[in-house]
User: What shape does this take?
Amino acid sequence: MEEQALQPDLSLHTNRAGTRAVVLIAGDLDAYSAATLEDEVSRLLADEVSELVFDLSGTGFLDSSGLRAILASEREISRHGGSLVLQGPSDPVRRLLEITGLTDHFVLES
Amino acid sequence: MALSAHERAESRAKFIEYRRTGDRKLRNELIEAHRSLASHLARRYAHRGEPFDDLLQVAYLGMLKAVERFDPERNLEFSTYATVTVEGELKRHFRDKTWSVRVPRRPQELHLRLANVINELSQRLSRAPRVPEVAAELGVSEEEVLEAMEVGGAYRSASLDTRPGENAEPTAIERRLGTEDQGFDIAEHRVLLETVLGDLSERERMIVELRFFHERTQTEIAEEVGISQMHVSRLLARTLMQLRERLETLEA
Amino acid sequence: MGHEQPGNVVRLTVPATLEFARIIRLTGSGVASRLGFDVEEIENLRVAIDELASLAIEAAGGPELEISFVATESELRIIGRAPGRGGADVGIDALTAQILKAVVDDYELRVEDGHVCFSCITRRPLR
Assistant: This one.
């Protein structure tokens, strides 16, 4: 089977600059891929990141599992005295944040 | 397009002759005789987005194969055999095309245009559009729209820049949950909010009041106060967290 | 379930692993689109079916999840079923419940006869 019509599920790409890390979350952040994000965040926190940014402009799908992973990341980094910003949330992400009343909970950057 | 009994008999004779001699001229005559069958079959596949000339070529190729392989001794009409062969070639043509470059590319570009088109249509129709409407507007198939939605999501939600109640029609979500604030219910905790507000700076208090009592959007607040939207977001997030902590200690 | 007209049920059986949630979502969108739901409701259904199917998959003890999309004149009902794990129970936490309440008209998840089952309903659009 050659090229598929559907994109691969999740790809994470992290840009580091000192203690700041921007994680591009492209694809589906769902029950299947949520753990991948949590692993990456643990890795970054262990590597002294205190300013974490999730670029959600390319996140095509988000469900409760993905949202829980984001919440868990926020708790983790707060415990380390750091901060999390959600950057450019895509429409599916915004929808879920609105449904769950979390638009004012996270720090969002458009 | 069907051959007459006389033509079929003639054709059969030619097939027998062709199998015996392999005469190219005979072969071409046989193909010519069944040319209209080939184009008829090609026309059946004409509305799948492939140029018709390509389909004709594929159908003629199929007819060539059928003529070369047909065994007139068998108790089978050539037109039946040819139909199967030619349709096989046409189907294979589409299958090969589908797995190659064209289809996978489209959803990737499409999903970027999708949200804008849906937004436009929503305003024009005063309701969310249906998939056939979106497909027609973009000039693509419904399947491509569904795949693009899978890649990028399509719902143009009320963003940080709009107010509740700005849409003409209530959205499905608003219908299900009503238009009150979901999640943290500010009205219920108004008194408590005022207590916490006392602890905030002048500016922070103004931001919270603008957001929850006057329903300003974050962008409007940013403009009014003279800071960035992100700063507004930060302040609100922090305030709500303080509120929740207060609540927890009081309700404990 | 009453009498179903032939042709109004779409069935899908997938391996009960989370990587197939995507296929379930796409099939659901296709069926909903055929039934005339608008893009917003299609997005809602994608979320609903993903949430319920993910929970069912996580509680499943057998290899396959069966999904049926049942359309009647008034509604689209999505039903899922998988063999359960012995002793496993299923529940929907507050966050997921909040999401489901917003995206479908009714939903249910339970263990019955050693199977984990879910269903959700969306009223069909009025023409």
Notes: Residues 21 and 52 of chain A are 5 Å apart (CA to CA). Chain A has three helices and six strands. The two ends of chain A are 39 Å apart (CA to CA). Residues 1-8 of chain A have pLDDT under 50 and may be disordered.
